[in-house]
Amino acid sequence: MIPLGFALAYAGFLGLCLAMERHHEQLLGSRRIPPPRRRLCFWGGWLLLAASSQAAVQAMGWGAGVVLWLGVLTATALPLALLLTYAPRLALALGVTPVLAALPLINP
Predict the structure, then answer these.
(1) Which element (helix H / strand E) includes 21?
(2) Which of 14, 68, 82, 101 lies 20 to 30 Å from 90, alpha-carbon distance?
(3) Are 31 and 21 spatial neighbours (Cβ–Cβ below 8 Å)?
(4) What number of other Cβ atoms are within 10 A of residue 20's Cβ?
(5) What's the pTM?
(6) Higher pLDDT, 3 or 52
(7) Phi-psi region for residue 80, left (φ > 0), alpha (ψ -120 to 50) or beta?
(8) CA–CA dist 68, 61 (Å, integer)
(9) Using CA atoms, how far apart are residues 67 and 106, in angstroms rounded to an integer?
(10) Contact, 10 vs 92, CB < 8 A?
(11) Which range has the worst mean pLDDT, 25-29, 69-73, 95-99, 104-108?
């Protein structure tokens, strides 16, 4: 569950980045964001961050899970910030791939 939490947190932060004009232009090439897409990226980003918190709490319980989640947020925000600066296209590609790779790790 912890790798899934990392993947969801990264994708959530990426969604929040895509809701901003500057990063939207960096990643997708157009500065103008249609309002429905902006809302989808914004609320989808927050939803993915909430899902990452759930994954951390499920893995470690409420006490340690919240602390783990805060560490996961820190550990995923820094690489995203660096990738947006130096390799924005790679940052976009890494938003989807880890989530798809971590989905089989979900316990039934």
Answers:
(1) helix 21-28
(2) 68
(3) yes
(4) 14
(5) 0.86
(6) 52
(7) alpha
(8) 10
(9) 21
(10) no
(11) 104-108
